[in-house]
UniProtKB/TrEMBL annotation:
Species of origin: Halocatena salina
Gene from which the chain derives: trpS
UniProt-listed Enzyme Commission number(s): 6.1.1.2
Keywords for this protein: Aminoacyl-tRNA synthetase, ATP-binding, Coiled coil, Cytoplasm, Ligase, Nucleotide-binding, Protein biosynthesis
Protein name per Swiss-Prot or TrEMBL: Tryptophan--tRNA ligase
GO-annotated molecular function: ATP binding; tryptophan-tRNA ligase activity
Annotated motif 'KMSKS' region, positions: 396-400
Length: 513
């Protein structure tokens, strides 16, 4: 493990709940995995839902994908853990595709992210969310089969290696379905209502498909727990948050920091730590008593409940420790953990306090004992978030609006025509455009360069941008170049799809068309 400090797993489940469960508290922004709303303010995702800026981890990424370099991938949850896993060869990537229409250039972002991680050494998983398509969108199985085949062919054509990775359909994967059943024990209808807005009219199968998606997200860790990243658009974040919560609930043990024999939540522990440090911490010869911490908190903070708990503990010394809390452990696992802890320890009915472990070491020990006793040992899944592609006609790119997107199956000439007909962010006249420059940041055509057409050529993307905003590049010429590049891309991609036909037939993925 590198210098990254993964507090959300090693410290508390409370933090996971506070940051990830964000269901009803985010009143100003609703993320709907099945809706078509755009996210106007990506910064709001940082404050409302705890998504972190990807810029914070970008310097640590070896050979970053161009989507990372150009800010198309803009946010993450604990991606630093995945970077550690990539460095040691123990990481996974998974994302899924709901086969409700033809794959388009917006979907290519996720294809690219899976393939890049696979080439960095991650175990790669691509799944067809056919149960979700059937329950949430009402597609019949013939349609689903055709679309599933199209998604898989494009993923293979873009470079996914099926010999090193895993492709599957939800409906064909019994291990996923069995895991979904177990996760369903930890999930209830009220929670799904709070997160997704389900009500009394919601089909049970729709609810079941959500739990199946949770199983998909955790599936790469079934045989061996490992850091796993889920590349998604921000509208899919509710799934990630629920999966992180469920990963914690399925653990045998929870590991937290602690300072006294009584239990405290994360905010209370921070206050106790502040009192401990202010009163001299480990620098004093005499122990710091709980009642002394209560006096300090009474003078400096408004926390009457914590103060009462500390006074009730009286002269018990405050001592930093790690606490192993029994969540779902069997009696044998709990006993094994007691025996495995070296050094000074205190054993209570529902937890064990250890005084000679870091949180990191304690967490790994708990996971090791859990796995030895048939537990899951899940890491909270990480995630990265890419910006939505703007539709060619403005608004969000949508499969249901043909003019707004370019399908990966479009005739190359049609792709050429769609780009030439696309909306731009140029000025009203060529003269005004030369004077004021274009607004590349608002332009769907510039996005085509940044997200797709420039490929790994950052110089081309930068040249297009600079020439646009400086007024040197007119929209007609820009669209013509983009249209030619799009035509060439589609021709190449569809040729590779044809080459992938035989490969798909050889794989154990049922697509009966």
């Amino acid at each position: 493990m590198s210098e990254h400090d993964h507090d959300s797993e090693r410290d508390t489940d409370e933090r996971t709940t506070e940051m990830d469960s964000g269901t009803a508290e985010a009143d100003d922004l609703t993320l709907d995995p099945w809706g078509s709303a755009t996210v106007e303010d990506y910064q709001q995702l940082f404050s409302e839902f705890g998504i972190e800026s990807f810029e914070s981890v970008l310097p640590d990424v070896s050979s970053p994908h161009y989507l990372m370099r150009r800010g198309v991938i803009f946010g993450h949850r604990e991606y630093d853990r995945v970077l550690d896993g990539l460095a040691t060869g123990e990481a996974a990537v998974l994302s899924g595709f709901m086969p409700t229409g033809e794959p388009h250039i917006g979907h290519k972002l996720v294809f690219d992210e899976i393939i890049w991680h696979q080439r960095q050494g991650a175990d790669a998983y691509g799944l067809i969310a056919d149960l979700e398509a059937h329950s949430a969108r009402g597609l019949d199985w013939d349609e689903i089969d055709q679309h599933a085949r199209d998604y898989l062919l494009s993923l293979l054509a873009l470079g996914f290696d099926p010999e090193e990775g895993t492709l599957y359909r939800q409906s064909e994967n019994r291990a996923v379905q069995d895991l979904a059943f177990e996760l369903g024990i930890e999930t209830n209808a009220s929670e799904l209502q709070a997160i997704y807005g389900f009500d009394g009219e919601t089909d049970v199968s729709h609810m079941q498909s959500v739990v199946t998606q949770m199983a998909d997200i955790l599936y790469p860790q079934l045989e061996e727990p490992k850091p796993t990243v889920i590349p998604v658009g921000p509208d899919q974040d509710p799934h990630v948050r629920l999966a992180r919560d469920l990963a914690a609930r399925m653990r045998s043990f929870k590991v937290t920091k602690a300072y006294a024999s009584f239990e405290a939540d994360s905010e209370e522990r921070e206050l106790i730590e502040a009192a401990y440090e202010a009163l001299g911490g480990g620098d004093t010869k005499e122990p710091i008593r709980c009642v002394e911490a209560a006096d300090w908190i009474a003078d400096h903070r408004d926390a009457p409940d914590l103060e009462e708990s500390l006074r009730a503990a009286g002269k018990e010394p405050i001592r930093p420790r790690v606490r192993f809390l029994d969540r779902n452990a069997s009696d044998d696992a709990f006993t094994a953990l007691i025996n495995a802890i070296d050094g000074e320890k205190r054993v209570y009915e529902g937890h064990i306090d250890a005084f000679e472990y870091s949180r990191e070491a304690a967490t790994e020990l708990a996971r090791e004992i859990e796995i030895e006793h048939d537990g899951y040992g899940f890491y909270p899944p990480s995630s990265i978030y890419h910006r939505f592609m703007t539709g060619l006609t403005g608004g969000k790119m949508s499969s249901s609006v043909p003019a707004s997107h370019i399908s990966l199956l479009d005739d190359p000439e049609d792709g050429y025509d769609k780009v030439n007909a696309a909306t731009t962010a140029g000025r009203e006249t060529a003269e005004l455009h030369r004077k004021l420059g274009g607004e590349a940041d608002e332009c769907p055509v510039y996005e085509l360069y940044a997200y797709l057409l420039a490929g790994d050529d950052d110089d081309l993307a930068k040249t297009v941008y600079d020439e646009c905003v400086n007024g040197e590049r007119l929209c007609g010429d820009c669209k013509e170049q983009a249209a030619q590049l799009m035509k060439a891309f589609l021709e190449d991609h569809q040729e590779k799809r044809e080459e992938a036909e035989e490969l798909l037939e050889s794989l154990d993925v049922a697509v009966d068309v």
